[in-house]
Amino acid sequence: xxxxxxxxxxxxxxxxDLWHPAGTDTRLDQLARALxxxxxxxxxxxxxxxxxxxxxxxxxxxxxxxxxxxxxxxxLAADRPxxxxxxxxxxxxxxxxxxxx
Length: 101
Description:
Layout: E1 15-18, H1 26-37, E2 41-44, H2 48-68, H3 73-78, H4 80-91
Parallel strand pairs: 1-2
Helix pairs in contact: 2-4
C-alpha cells in the first residue's frame, strides 16, 4: 500500500485498469507488477473505449447521488434510499441518472 505524508490518512480500494492485454507491452507489464506488489489490484483491459463509457456512466450516477444530497458524501452515506437508487442506476444502464436532481 502506498505511504502517505505524516498525519495524512490514505485509502485506495479500487483497482488500476491498464489498457493493453497482458504480454503486449513490457512497460505496462512492469507497471502492473509494480502496482501488484504494492497491494493494488490490476486488471488489463483490451476494450478501453468500452471501459471509458462504463466509467463515465458510473461517475455520472455517483455525481447525481451526491448532488441529490447537496454534494455532501456524509449525507449520501446516511441516505439509504439515495444509496439504493445510486446502486440501481449503476447496475441498470437504462435508468437515467439525470432525473435524480
